[in-house]
TrEMBL record:
PANTHER family reported for this sequence: N-ACYL-PHOSPHATIDYLETHANOLAMINE-HYDROLYZING PHOSPHOLIPASE D (PTHR15032)
Taxon lineage: Bacteria, Pseudomonadati, Pseudomonadota, Gammaproteobacteria, Alteromonadales
Domain (Metallo-beta-lactamase) ranges: 97-292
One Pfam family matching this protein: Lactamase_B_2
UniProt source species: Alkalimarinus alittae
Gene3D superfamilies: Ribonuclease Z/Hydroxyacylglutathione hydrolase-like
The name this protein goes by in its record: MBL fold metallo-hydrolase
Record-linked InterPro entries: Metallo-B-lactamas, RibonucZ/Hydroxyglut_hydro
Domain of life according to the entry: Bacteria
Length: 330
């Protein structure tokens, strides 16, 4: 049985975010969610016409498979981090390997013949990785990829950590050790500490299950290194509280894409500048941009998130990674 405890001073111990069988985002967002308004109609029309249209990206945006495999192997046994596109990272600490939000299939969709298509191939596949722990921030198709997860051979030895009400789907895939957590709960596994934390987002894989499962961000602390994985989120004042209760952090993995038009998506997807605010609010020394340049879900140009992220002022160091790149963790 996993030893899950509330973080001291848990502001959501009263389960404010639980609401009649569904969940809601924390207070403190400066934006209104208008995904269900008429403002969404032009976005849907644009995506229907050109959502899966290929885009020209620079060669350095994605490594070849041979180079990605070479870099992954060459880093061992040095602690390292690899980006596989979207919010999928493979983090190798000393004695622990963590995979976040696997999305490695051709579509962010319930079927592989329709829906948002991955526009940049991943040079690394699930079979190239050996995770001990998989963290899944929520159940959207570009974060919880059942096709990739089914391809894992040894499901019995892997621990999956995810927010509440997401575990049933993962158990159906054959995973035996699935740990569901609420906001501001903490899990200690040997020398490793995991914390499930709030995020401004939503959940759902069908028309009828919106917000039936929880979404969240996560803190991972192992071997003296503390990483914040934001999952998918808009910006709000809750990040300042996350910083006060759980920070500071060595590295923050922050979402910088899928933000336009702001009149529709601002409440659930941070802009590049807001992603920097998230990192600063939680006290991160280093920021790595994610959730961009992989699949077209909104209307901004595909390479714009990285350009704005790198150009914005920041007290923290910030960088982007190539898809398939592996670099030293510290």
């Amino acid at each position: 049985m996993a030893d899950i405890t509330d973080i001291s001073g848990n502001p959501f111990a009263d389960l404010w975010h639980h609401q009649n069988g569904r969940f809601r985002s924390p207070p403190g967002s400066p934006w209104i969610d208008r995904r269900h308004s008429t403002k969404m109609l032009p976005v849907l029309a644009q995506l229907a016409v050109s959502g899966n249209k290929p885009f020209d990206y620079p060669k350095e945006h994605c490594l070849s498979r041979d180079l990605a495999l070479q870099k992954l192997a060459s880093m061992a046994p040095t602690p390292s981090i690899s980006w596989l596109g979207q919010a999928c990272f493979y983090i190798q600490f000393k004695g622990l390997r963590v995979l976040t939000d696997p999305f490695l299939s051709q579509r962010a969709s319930p079927v592989q013949f329709s829906g948002p298509r991955r526009l940049v191939e991943t040079p690394l596949q699930i079979s190239d990785l050996s995770p001990d722990v998989i963290i899944i921030s929520h159940n959207h198709y570009d974060h919880l990829d059942t096709h990739a997860l089914k391809a894992i051979d040894d499901k019995a030895s892997i621990t999956l950590i995810t927010p509440l009400k997401t575990g049933a789907l993962l158990r159906k895939l054959g995973f035996e050790r699935v740990i569901e957590m609420d906001w501001y709960q903490e899990l200690k596994e040997g020398e490793t500490r995991y914390q499930c934390l709030p995020a401004y987002h939503f959940s759902g894989r069908r028309l009828t299950d919106e917000n039936r499962s929880l979404w969240g961000s996560f803190a991972i602390e192992h071997d003296g290194v503390k990483i914040f994985f934001a999952g998918d989120t808009g910006y709000g004042s809750e990040f300042s509280r996350i910083g006060r209760l759980t920070g500071p952090y060595d590295i923050a993995l922050v979402p910088i894409g899928a933000y336009a038009p702001r009149s529709v998506f601002a409440a659930v997807h941070a802009s590049p500048e807001e992603a920097i605010k998230i990192g600063e609010d939680i006290g991160a020394k280093q920021l790595i941009g994610m959730h961009w340049g992989t699949v077209r879900l909104t209307s901004e140009p595909m390479m714009e998130p990285s350009e704005r992220f790198l150009a914005a002022q920041s007290r923290a160091q910030k960088s982007i990674m190539a898809i398939g790149e592996t670099r030293a963790l510290y």
